Amino acid sequence: MATNKYGEDEIITLDFDDGASFECGIMGVFDVDGKDYIALEALDGSEDVYLYGYKEVEDDFELLDIEDEETFEKVAAEFESLTDEPL
Question: pTM for the complete prediction?
Answer without folding.
Answer: 0.86
